[in-house]
Amino acid sequence: MSRRLLFLFLLLFPLAAFPQDVKRSAQKLESIRKQIKDLEDKISSTQTAEKNSLQQINQYERQLILTHALVKTMADELNRLKRDIEETRQDLIETEKAIADLKAHYARYVTRVYKQGTDYELEWLFSSQSVNQGIRRLMYIRFFAEQRVRDLEDFEVRKKQTRAQRLRLQAQLDEQNLLFKQKKAEEGSLKKKKARLDTAVKQARKNIKKFNDSLNKQRQEEEKIQNLIARLIEEEEIRRAKEAEKGVDSFRKSKDFTAERVDYSAINPTFHLNKGKFSWPVSNGVIITSYGKIYDKTLKTTKISNGIDIAVPVGTPVHTIADGLVAKMDYIPGFGNVIIIRHNNSYLTVYGQLESVTVQEGQKVTAGAVIGSSGGLNSSRGPSLHFEVWYGKDHQNPEVWLARQ
Question: Are 226 and 273 in the same domain?
Answer without folding.
Answer: no
